[in-house]
Amino acid sequence: MEWDVIEVSISGEYALQVRFSDGVAGGVRFLPSFFRGVFAPLRDQEQFRRVHVVDGVVTWPGDLDLAPDAMHEEIRRHGQWLLA
After folding, report:
1. Diameter of the chain by CA atoms?
2. 12 pLDDT higher than 90
3. What are phi and psi for residue 79, nearest 5 degrees?
4. SS3 state of residue 17
5. Angle at 21 between CA 44 and CA 38, to 5 degrees
6. pLDDT at residue number 7
7. What values do phi and psi take at 41, rounded to 5?
8. Alpha-carbon distance 34 to 39, whole Å?
9. What local confidence, expressed as pLDDT, does residue 57 receive?
């Protein structure tokens, strides 16, 4: 699918750079308020840095992931996705 993530890298503290299969690329920034509930463990930078791509989805250990379709739409429109 066009929103399959093919590459993810750390681009700063609580920030990622992603590239999709259709060539769309941009940043994902996480505000501190995002790290609650199931995402609370990612507040730990060591855990956050364990990000990788599984089947086109940005994923962390513990079955945590981000919706690639929503990410693609925000990055396509605004160049980044801000998660709060």
Report:
1. 32
2. yes
3. 85, -10
4. strand
5. 25
6. 98
7. -60, -25
8. 7
9. 98
Residue 2 reports pLDDT greater than 90? no
For residue 11, give every residue at least 6 positions away whose Cβ sits within 8 Å of its Cβ, in sequence order, or none.
17, 27
- pLDDT tens digit sequence for 17-73: 999 999 999 999 999 999 999 999 999 999 999 999 999 999 999 999 999 999 999
Per the CB < 8 A criterion, the answer to whether 81 and 72 are in contact is: no
Q: How many CB atoms lie within 10 A of CB 73?
A: 14
Smallest CA-to-CA distance from 39 within 48, 27, 52 is with 48
Q: Considering the entire predicted model, what is its pTM?
A: 0.94
**Residue labelled with tokens 């993530």:** 5
* Residue partners of 23: CB distance under 8 A and separation at least 6: none
Amino acid at 20: F
Cross-strand pairs, 57: 54
Q: Which amino acid is at 37?
A: G
